[in-house]
Amino acid sequence: MGQLIAVAVITILAVISPGADFAMTVRNSYLYGRTAGVLAAVGISLGVLVHVTYTMLGVGLLVTRTPMLFTAMKLIGAAYLVYIGYKTFVTKAQVDIDLSSDSGLTKAGALRTGFLTNALNPKTMLFVLSTYTQVVSGDTPVFQQIGYGLFMSLAHLVWFALAAVLFSNQSLRTRLLQRQSVLNKVIGTVLVGLGMVLALTPSMA
Fold first, then answer.
1. How many CA atoms lie within 13 A of 98 on its CB side?
2. For 66, phi and psi rounded to 5 degrees?
3. CA-based diameter of the chain, in Å?
């Protein structure tokens, strides 16, 4: 029971802490609508499972003990955030967006942005690794380890789906779109800043 509580508390705190995944969900939701926001949330939750899978297979330990490999993964994730942030920053306001539809981003594109945001996110990688190293031992059943991972993924899905519903609300979305130019620059700056912080953060020894 203690392990379950520990996983729940760590996961909830990690999920609600602002980061690139939250910025990406807001971006998709207010620019492209609820479907795009929810699909980004689904992608984010699937990205968590990538980290869970390789951690359970032991690859995570290899990553943390191989500085060059960790640095390569960190820089790829940082470059992706900087790229998306730049694209968002320079996007011109589109005041004629049709709020009755969720056009502008394909379903696959929305899912992909969420997935890559977390699959390439060193913060998520370290969250999963640190949690598993704290609560999993050699005696922990595989089904229990899988359960931890599924809970982490589900928590991300629920939280970011709620964010997508909030920021795609038509009245709120209308107000946001009226200030689209400013919001694009704010969200773009946040994403670029997060990418640069990740790139400049010293790699693990």
1. 6
2. -120, 90
3. 59
Rg (CA), the chain: 18
List, as one string, the DSSP characters of 157-190. Answer: HHHHHHHHHHHT-HHHHHHHHHTHHHHHHHHHHH
Q: Which residues, 6 or more positions from 129, have their beta carbon under 8 angstroms from its beta carbon?
A: 51, 55, 60, 61, 63, 64
Separation CA 23–CA 68 (nearest Å):
28
Contacts of 144 (CB under 8 A, 6+ apart): none
**Full-model pTM:** 0.73
CA dist., res. 33 & res. 53, Å (int): 31
Phi-psi category of 135—alpha, beta or left, where left has phi over 0 and alpha has psi -120 to 50?
A: alpha
Q: What is the pLDDT of residues 150-171, one digit of tens each?
A: 999 999 999 999 999 998 888 8
Q: Give the three-class secondary structure for 187.
A: helix
Whole-angstrom distance, CA of residue 41 vs CA of residue 190: 18
How far from the centroid of its chain's Cα atoms is residue 66's Cα?
Answer: 24
Residue 140 scores a pLDDT above 70: yes
Whole-number Å distance between alpha carbons of 204 and 202: 7
How many helical (H) and strand (E) elements, i.e. helices and strands, does the chain have? 10, 0
Please name the amino acid found at residue 154. L
